[in-house]
From TrEMBL:
<dbReference type="GO" id="GO:0005975">
    <property type="term" value="P:carbohydrate metabolic process"/>
</dbReference>
<dbReference type="InterPro" id="IPR007260">
    <property type="entry name" value="NanE"/>
</dbReference>
<dbReference type="InterPro" id="IPR013785">
    <property type="entry name" value="Aldolase_TIM"/>
</dbReference>
<keyword id="KW-0413">Isomerase</keyword>
<comment type="pathway">
    <text>Amino-sugar metabolism; N-acetylneuraminate degradation; D-fructose 6-phosphate from N-acetylneuraminate: step 3/5.</text>
</comment>
<protein>
    <recommendedName>
        <fullName>Putative N-acetylmannosamine-6-phosphate 2-epimerase</fullName>
        <ecNumber>5.1.3.9</ecNumber>
    </recommendedName>
</protein>
<dbReference type="GO" id="GO:0019262">
    <property type="term" value="P:N-acetylneuraminate catabolic process"/>
</dbReference>
<dbReference type="GO" id="GO:0047465">
    <property type="term" value="F:N-acylglucosamine-6-phosphate 2-epimerase activity"/>
</dbReference>
<comment type="similarity">
    <text>Belongs to the NanE family.</text>
</comment>
<comment type="function">
    <text>Converts N-acetylmannosamine-6-phosphate (ManNAc-6-P) to N-acetylglucosamine-6-phosphate (GlcNAc-6-P).</text>
</comment>
<dbReference type="Pfam" id="PF04131">
    <property type="entry name" value="NanE"/>
</dbReference>
<dbReference type="InterPro" id="IPR011060">
    <property type="entry name" value="RibuloseP-bd_barrel"/>
</dbReference>
<keyword id="KW-0119">Carbohydrate metabolism</keyword>
<dbReference type="GO" id="GO:0006053">
    <property type="term" value="P:N-acetylmannosamine catabolic process"/>
</dbReference>
<dbReference type="GO" id="GO:0005829">
    <property type="term" value="C:cytosol"/>
</dbReference>
């Protein structure tokens, strides 16, 4: 584990390069190209889903890499690196930081966040990032030894605010109360919003769809132009 990773990403933009199987850009080759483009544009880090995408990006890009593995399990709502198995594969694929759902919802296989954090910390080969949706979840993750908190899940749990833009209140309150870095992530669509995230206390800003999902970008244009009549 390399804590200088954190210094490398401070104050910059991390680009999340993800496409699910049902999306037009799905495929590791395309995601690696996205990551190369992000690096050329000045990104300080990459966030990627699945061991194959992580390995493909690692081979092409020399930036700190946040890895996760989205996988559905019956009977649990948790899908971002839900179990130890996915976390270990993500690390094996070359991620420097492993991102896990750290919401308070029940996990698959009866695993708990506490034991997952303890096991991954004792391996010591990757930093742990907690994808949370509330201040309480963030503070709990910090207590469990996570090195980074990210606002990723705000708006995606039924008990967090459902809004179109970033959760600035969460960024502000968590940054004020936590002693580990808070990354702003989720629905950051404009440069002004990214600046506002930093003003709210974010250590780093993670941007996904606004850069790497052209279907979302197109839709924002088409919806807006149509709404202007
Ligand atoms: C909730 C969830 O599953 N978030 C995922 C986490 O890895 C990704 O689908 C998002 O693209 C990422 O968080 C970046 O957010 P945005 O694409 O809104 O900039």
């Amino acid at each position: 584990m390399d804590k200088t990773m954190l210094e490398k990403v401070r104050g910059g933009i991390i680009v999340s390069c993800q496409a699910l199987p049902e999306e037009p850009l799905f495929g590791s080759e395309v995601m690696a190209k996205m990551a190369i483009a992000a690096q050329a544009g000045g990104a300080v880090g990459i966030r990627a889903n699945t061991p194959v995408d992580i390995a493909a990006i690692k081979a092409e890009v020399n930036l700190p890499l946040i890895g996760l593995w989205k996988r559905d399990y019956e009977g649990s709502e948790v899908y971002i690196t839900p179990t130890l198995e996915e976390a270990e594969e993500v690390i094996r694929a070359g991620a420097d930081i492993v991102a896990l759902d750290a919401t308070s919802r029940p996990r698959p296989k009866g695993e708990t966040l506490e034991e997952l954090a303890a096991k991954l910390r004792s391996r010591g080969d990757a930093l742990l990032m907690a994808d949370i949706s509330t201040v309480e979840e963030g503070l709990r993750a910090e207590e469990l030894g996570f090195h980074i908190l990210s606002t990723t899940m705000s708006g995606y749990t039924p008990y967090s605010p459902q809004q179109e833009g970033p959760d600035f209140d969460l960024i502000r309150e968590l940054s004020a109360r936590a002693s580990v870095p808070v990354f702003a992530e989720g629905r950051i669509h404009t440069r002004e919003e990214a600046v506002e995230c930093f003003r709210s206390g974010a250590y780093t800003v993670v941007i996904g769809g606004a850069i790497t999902r052209p279907q979302q970008i197109t839709k924002r244009f088409t919806d807006f132009v149509r709404s202007q009549g």
